[in-house]
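User: Study the shape:
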Amino acid sequence: MQIEPPDSHHLRAAEGWLELGNWREAEADLGRVAPQLREFPNVLALQFRILATGKDWARALGVGERLVELMPEHPGCWIDRSNALHYLGRYQEAFDQLLPGWKKFPTNPVIPYNFACFTCRMGQLDVAREWLATALALPGGQELKEQAAIDPDLEALRQADAGKL
């Protein structure tokens, strides 16, 4: 089922506000979408992005959980949910919740990269180093190397390895 006007206009307006960096206006426009349409995956995905931009991780977690239920075949849903847990400081739970996603999507380099971040935050540097190596070895993983060099989640690993990743 497709979202029709005026709800489609509210959805596009919310996307536009978010692109402009104004998550508050984006949230306001998204709130104008009819309640019966708010469980649509594309509406929920936008809601997650808005909440993440506003750093409302507790609410983002609930939306992320719903997205995994609705779209378990999309790795981004698994990643988003675990990132919400991560930003809530719940690193072990973030790891545990993403592990089934890794089994479903073993070639997605972002998942082991996130595992490296979670385990590094938990002080498990040897484990983090192994997950990072796994991420970088996967197709597309080399694109994460620049991110790893500046990612605050991997700071302890960089310090332990004399600034090199």
Summary: The first helix runs from residue 7 to 19. The chain has a mean pLDDT of 95. Residues 116 and 131 are 5 Å apart (CA to CA).
